[in-house]
Each structure stands twice: as C-alpha cells, then as structure tokens.
Design goal:
Elements lengths: L11 E5 L3 H7 L4 H22 L3 E8 L7 H24 L2 E6 L7 H14 L5 E9 L1 H17 L10 H7 L10 E4 L18 E4 L9 H12 L9 H4 L3
Parallel strand pairs: 1-2, 1-5, 2-4, 3-4, 5-6
Helix pairs in contact: 1-2, 2-3, 3-4
Length: about 240
C-alpha cells in the first residue's frame, strides 16, 4: 500500500457504486445477491474512509431512475436498505460518523423513512466523518427542487431575484453545508455521471476503475487517492497564473 504520509487526502469523496448486477451475473447469482454484497462493501468503505481521514463520503445508492427497474429488484433493494440501515447505525456510532440521507425520500415506505430519520437523529452529533447516502436522488431533480423553492421564496417576498447567487443555490441543495467533492470515484469502468451531483461536481477530479463495486476495497480506495494526489487542481485557472508568471 502507498506511503499514506505522501498522499493528499481529499476532504470530500463522492462514489458511484456501479457493477453489483454484473458482479452477480459473473457468478451465476441473482442481481439481489450483488446488491447485498455491494451493501457490505459500502459498510466497509465507511470504515476505511474514516480511517484514512476523509471528512465527507457521499455514496450514490439509488437514483430517481432506478424505479424503472423490475419490481422484484426494486423490492429487494428497499429490503436491503432496511437491513443495512440498521447496520449502518452500528458502524456510524462505532466510528463517530454522522449520517445524512439526501434525495426525495417521500416516495419510500414510511418504515424506511423512519429508519433514515432515526439514523440521522442518532448520529447528528458525531464528528469524525460525515457519510451521505443519496437515495431516490437525481441531480436534475435536485436542481429542479431548488429552482422551485427559490421561486416560491421570491413569490412570497422572502427573496429578490437579483440577489440569487451561486452560493444561494448551493445553500438550497440537498448537500447544503457540505463541501463540494474533491474526488469522484466510479467503479465498473463506466464513463458517465449518471445524473449524480451535477452542480457539486463542477471542478471535481474524476477517477474511474474497472473494479466492480462488490470487489472494491481499501486498497482500491487508496489507488484512487494516489491518482488524486498526482492531479494539479486549477479550478479554471492556469498554473503560470498561480505562480505569478
């Protein structure tokens, strides 16, 4: 493993957890088994991220588009969220991790919503790391909800259209109060954002690995951080400008 003292640990890491279905198919297993294994990997990744000093981990668990999948697969996923939601509570308390759930949660069953609320309440004072899980989340949906909210504020006289800024929009996002991701990791080799954190990823460094999500581990996470450490982040500027030349 790399010399951790030589690495730049990103403050905020976002992850697109891709490849559960393919992992299961390669082994002749039902897709639900791949999702179950993926949940175990996510649980371990929360441990690993906290140990490495990452302050915020944002995982894409279920998109607004995932409802289009077969009812049996969606049902299995919802069941897993209940099972691993309770396990997540244990991990979070053990590692002093705060948990936040982002996305439009009203579509979920009431008992699952209560699990989300219980985890958030129980971990709200934890300080070592913040773990954010995006469920029924879509970047376009999030931005649409923000536009609607700000429009209502302007209509009601609580805001003025001329005062709308990037910061104001950021303050209305599901991720309000959190830093934008420094690093995005996507597993399974796919080269797309999949409607994930479209506003927040404006200047994020992207790392793609062919590793399927259930096979992702601490060594793979360190590889991603190694790649990130070699990047020269300029946020739209030039290196010679930063050097004053």
């Amino acid at each position: 493993m790399a010399d951790m003292e030589q690495l730049k640990i990103p403050e905020c890491v976002a992850v697109i957890l891709d490849g559960n279905g393919r992992w299961a198919k390669k082994r002749g297993l039902p897709r639900s088994m791949g999702h179950a294994e993926g949940c175990k990997t996510l649980e371990q990744t929360v441990y690993d991220a906290a140990d490495l000093g990452i302050k915020v981990l944002i995982a894409y668990g279920f998109s607004t588009e995932n409802w289009k999948r077969e009812d049996s697969e969606v049902g299995a996923l919802l069941t897993l969220f209940k099972i691993y939601g309770k396990k997540l509570m244990r991990v979070a308390m053990e590692k002093n991790v705060r948990v936040r759930v982002i996305g439009e949660r009203s579509r979920f069953p009431s008992d699952l919503i209560r699990i989300f609320e219980d985890i958030e309440e129980a971990t709200k004072d934890n300080t070592a790391m913040t773990f954010v899980t995006a469920l029924n989340y879509g970047g376009r949906d999030e931005i649409t909800r923000v536009v609607r909210k700000i429009a209502e504020e302007v209509r009601d006289g609580n805001a003025d259209a001329k005062d709308i800024t990037e910061q104001m929009i950021s303050d209305h996002l599901d991720t309000a109060g959190l830093p934008d991701p420094d690093l995005l990791i996507r597993t399974s080799g796919e080269l797309r954002l999949s409607n994930y954190l479209l506003w927040q990823l404006a200047y994020t460094e992207i790392y793609v690995t062919d590793t399927l999500w259930p096979d992702f581990n601490k060594a793979e996470l360190v590889k991603a951080i190694e790649a990130y450490s070699r990047r020269d982040r300029r946020f739209g500027g030039r290196k010679d400008q930063e050097a004053g030349t």
